[in-house]
Fold:
Amino acid sequence: MKDYLAFLRRSFALSFVGDWRYYAWMTLLTVIALIGLNAWAVQMAQGLGTTGMTNQVSWGAYIANFTYFVGIAAAAVMLVIPAYLYKTEPLKKVVIFGELLAVAVIVVCLAFVTVDLGRPDRFWHMIPLIGKFNWPISMLSWDVVALSGYLLLNMHIAGYLIYKQYLDEAPNPKFYKPFVFISIVWAISIHTVTAFLYVGLGGRSFWHSAIVAPRFLASAFAAGPSLIILTFQVIRHFTRMKVEDEALFLLRRIVVVAMVINLFLLMSELFAEFYPHTFHVASAEYLWFGLHGADKLVPWIWIAVTLNVIATAIFLSARSHRLVWLNAACVLAIVGIWVEKGMGLIVPGFVPTPLGEVVEYGPTFNESLVCLGILALGALLYTIMIRVAIPVVLGGLRREA
Amino acid sequence: MSNDLVQIGRRSFLKRASVAVAGVTGVMASLSPLKEVVGDIDIEAWLQQHYHELSPEQMKDVLARLEADAKRTYGVDVKVQDIKPRPDTKFAYALNLGVCVGCRKCAYACEKENNVSRSPGMQYIRVLEMDKGGVNLETANHQYDPETVPKPDKYYMPVQCHQCDNPSCVKACPVNATWKEPDGIVVVDYNWCIGCRYCEAACPYWARRFNFEKPILPKEEINTNTAYLSNRPRPQGVMEKCTFCLHRTREGRYPACLEVCPTGARVFGNLYDPKSEIRYVLENKRVFVLKEEVGTVPNFFYFFEA
Structure:
């Protein structure tokens, strides 16, 4: 216990130590996070009227980002599976950074739902036993369980392994292996449950489609590892942590398959919507071509799909064996999927309304600041975590005698 | 971050202290917009239990507090009661589309009766101007505004909460802040709702409303006869909806929308009372429900009779 407190104290102290680039980066993130906090305070005081949301489009950028980042968090499993199940060496060495990324990203997700609440002060109503938790009926209650469970699992696995290394002791497989296997299933579940949030609404035909959960997983396993590929290169550039190219190219293979499946599922969805052309096509029509003159999302979705198609083409070509091309494809995939399954999935579910009214949505400046603040918070958390993890992994930070 | 082996000396203490001070100042400054609402914080309200957990004594205190809140906010003496459902009662509604002229009197009467915020899009009743030849909501006109109604070749369809027997909104709520009462009315505990708006996304009839800001209520138009589960003034950031005017109907009166209807298009009553008007309509007219295919089993029926 004493050792553990000392470890936490030293970790905390360590997060304030670095060269000027580190300070510049951390200061920048802190400032953005505080600006976001300020924007959230404005929103709490004045109400969600400070956002672009209305009674017609009652979810927007917050829930869109939430959905996207749940996928990113789930995608850590694409490192965990090869590392633990197939014992792929280059990935085994870096899997801990994927698990830490999942921790930071889940915090981001929880922050996005929290800022979306009209009454965040009443969060305790959701705590089982103290409040009233509508589990197992409400899909939202399932999502709360899934996300907090995933957060705890990854915190435990990564925290335990890092702490054991800090103590210079061999980790006891009993204390983390079972959790690793649970976390694999759990990762799939967080994104499935998030998809079921939408699929479970029979009155919203745009979401009420069995293909949403598979699409979520496919796009997550494309965007998530893409982000990890880029993150690992940043880590090896700025720290003494070595990440082998082989690890990156192993991830590339996962992304290739996921991108192709994602495009295929998208095409299946489009066929089911547009070929029969029932009344239920209205939302898809709004997204892809505009409805009754409302077409705010149209350019975005076409840009997103173009990016995804180009990314897939690069991933499939031999060029993606060169890092420059791989990185370019990763950026395109991350952005393309962010638009496609973020705003491109959430907003059209509300347009037209169940009574046929067409009201458009766009985030306000204040709402965008809140979003940026949350992203900065996530980056800040991740930087601190790897700031501590790297010296431990490399053997520089050990228990004091 | 090349310096992985860290020696924390005394000199860095000053540095760290200044970082800490800067951090705390930054957070405080960021939160400063909350200063204007700090005065509204009420620990007792914050700790208030769910409607179903309140003892009669606690409910008395809560009602007194809500009345005091209303007095402070609007300067009006509002009476807030906890009106319970009557036994052997299940309310249902029927609407004769053959005579509705689309005057929207119901929507405005409802707004006033229920102390609904006057901000746009909050009215519980949405009247749709429909093309004859089908029930196509997608071509419905929500913003129709002619000199006189009805227009030829159109019919008018008011939509409000259908008080479903299988309500998707109730299923959606993560904290049981909305539920179906024994008399069939779906209600919201405005003091328990966390404002996630999942119910609003779940409703196939677009019947639920969220308070995106503090409700805008002209003082002189406030209805002072209110109930905890229906028309008492609502706080910012929570859901609300049509309750079939339970503060009226549970005391044997008609809902405000029915009372104001100039054409007698609206029929309301107790399904368990064989002599009620609603039973007569359901037994003798060819009624239908809207969006039967979504399976929510509404207690709101439509029929056409000229």
About this structure: Residues 130 and 139 of chain B are 7 Å apart (CA to CA). The longest helix of chain B spans residues 11-30.
